[in-house]
Amino acid sequence: MTFGTYEASRQSGNPVQLFKFTYGAGPSDYYAYTDHTEELTVDGVLYDPVPIDRGNLDANGTLDRSAIKINTDIGTALAEIFRVYPPAFVVTLIIRQGHIGDPDSEFLVIWAGRIVGAQREGSECVLQGEPVSTSLRRPGLRRHYQYGCPHQLYGPQCQADKVSKTVSATVASVAGAAVTLDSGWEGAFAPEKFLGGLFEWTNTDGLVDRRTILRITGDTLSLSGLAKDVSPSDTVDVVVGCNHKAYAEDGGDCQPLHDNILNYGGDRWIPVKNPVGTYNNYY
Fold first, then answer.
1. Nearest Cα to 19, choosing from 4, 35, 8?
2. Which of 33, 105, 141, 263 is the most buried (most CB within 10 A)?
3. 217 inside domain
4. Residue 48: beta bridge partners?
5. Which helix (H) or strand (E) holds 71?
6. Three-state SS at 267
7. Is 184 a domain residue?
8. Burial of 96 per CB tally in 10 Å (0-12, 13-18, 19+)
9. Quick one: which of 54, 48, 136 has its CA closest to 93?
10. What contacts 24+ positions apart, CB below 8 Å, involve 40-46?
11. What residues are paired with 18 via a beta bridge?
């Protein structure tokens, strides 16, 4: 345990910080930076040297008020994911602190949370961080008694098969948030079944990005935001959506399209007549 020795020393201490931003679900979906002048490898993660700094931490015994600001260069790959449109995934951050020359390579976690905002100030990208303790204290979403299914499509409660409902398509043209695909992109599915589905592609950083499909007009998809880094002739994935209704007789997609009725979260048998109202039960 040599971290404390270096931390207390005025001569031997050579403090550096490590910033690991996780973006996505894959094991390599992260950006790792250090404020050191050279690359550092800690726990198998390579941290690139970039201009980066953080604000002061509020050491009041808890992390409830320790929101933080991180300043970095606007030209970093991390800043690019906040350009034009918010990131498709939650961006989490772990900050570690250690000392160069520590034989035990102890880099202790001094802050953990997520990035909730970003703005440009001159040549800098300023990120606002929210500590993980704030998320733990936030009340979760409540389950409602409703007709439609409240589950996130392809999420942990829905568990619909995403792979079998994904088709590959070729981009014909891009105009802002409207992307036109080559004819026949829908494959074996009706085009309207992709409403509320996903448009996914791999960006220039090698990470998966996605947008929600809002409208379909012929072979043109209107997305929830700009399809950044998408160009004509690119191959993209288009994922079937769901109207969150149960059976075919209801016009639903859960049972006939996704074959996922056992995970349906709504209640289509909610009575529509009030038994204590003016309606007569007998005639």
1. 35
2. 33
3. yes
4. 33
5. strand 68-73
6. coil
7. yes
8. buried
9. 54
10. 40/16, 42/18, 42/96, 42/98, 42/105, 42/107, 45/20
11. 34, 96
Closest to 234 measured CA to CA, from 184, 163, 172, 186: 172
Tokens 């289509």, residue? Answer: 268
250 lies in the same domain as 130 = no
Range of the domain at 185: 163-263
Strands 108-121 vs 91-99: parallel, antiparallel or unpaired:
antiparallel
Prediction pTM value: 0.74
Q: Whole-angstrom Cα distance, residue 238 to residue 167?
A: 5
Do the beta carbons of residue 245 and residue 252 sit within 8 Å? yes
Nearest-angstrom CA–CA distance, 90 and 233: 29
* 166 vs 81, more confident: 166
Residue 113 has pLDDT above 60, yes or no: yes
Please state, in angstroms and rounded to a whole number, the distance separating the CA atoms of residues 201 and 168. Answer: 10
Residues 118, 227 share a domain = no
Summarize pLDDT for 189-241 with one digit per residue, the tens.
999 999 999 999 988 877 788 999 999 999 999 999 888 889 999 999 999 99
Task: Read off the tokens for 246.
Answer: 């149960």
pLDDT at 184: 94
Q: Are residues 24 and 104 in the same domain?
A: yes
SS3 content of the chain, % helix, strand, coil (to 5): 10, 35, 55
Mean pLDDT, range 128-141, rounded to an integer? 75
271 Cβ neighbours under 8 A, 6+ residues apart: none
Residue type for 225, please?
G
Residue 20 in tokens: 């690991």
Closest to 45 in 3D by CA, of 55, 59, 31, 57: 31
- 58 backbone dihedrals φ, ψ, rounded to 5°: -90, 100
Cα–Cα distance measured from residue 270 to residue 70, given in angstroms and rounded to the nearest whole number:
50
| Spatial contact of 238 and 166, defined as CB atoms under 8 Å apart | yes
